[in-house]
Amino acid sequence: MKPELNSIMLIDDSYADNLFHSIVIEEANLNKKVTQVRNGLEAINYLKSINPEEQPNLIFLDYNMPKMNATEFIEAYDKLEIDNRENVKIILLTTSLSPFDMDKVTNMETIDSFRRKPLTMEMLNEILEESFS
Q: Fewer CB within 10 Å, N side or C side of the chain?
């Protein structure tokens, strides 16, 4: 049984990646809303602007983005007042990570896991099983 999610947020500066990942999520028929933003700063501003019940349950986060990368996003996200933060899962999706970047994200408790792009149906099902079962 697939979980009922309020929404999923895609944070990626690549329009093509956001589009592709949205299609995978849509085909999984998981939720009511998929929000796409182009960088961490847009994501923080969006999260500050919505009602608590609209907070995404699942966030897919690209590492390298302009204005605010994943590390900077997590630092800002950790300062936000979010109800039921324990119900929000953040998955880092990236094409690659340098060993230096890998060390940074491995030590960030807010990131639940990281996966290599692109998001696939199999990967999405694994994430849902690990995170929401």
A: N
What is the C-alpha separation between 111 and 71, in angstroms, rounded? 10
How many Cα atoms occupy the beta-carbon half-sphere of 5 within 13 Å?
A: 29
Angstrom distance (rounded) from CA 116 to CA 133:
22
What CA–CA distance (Å, rounded) separates 57 from 25? 13
Query: pTM higher than 0.90, yes or no?
Result: yes
Domains of the chain and any CATH numbers: 8-123 (3.40.50.2300)
At residue 129, φ and ψ (nearest 5 deg) are -65, -45
Burial of residue 22 (number of CB atoms within 10 Å: 0-12, 13-18, 19+): middle
Q: What is the mean pLDDT of each run of 10 residues along the chain (133 residues)?
A: 80 96 92 90 96 91 92 94 88 80 77 92 94 83
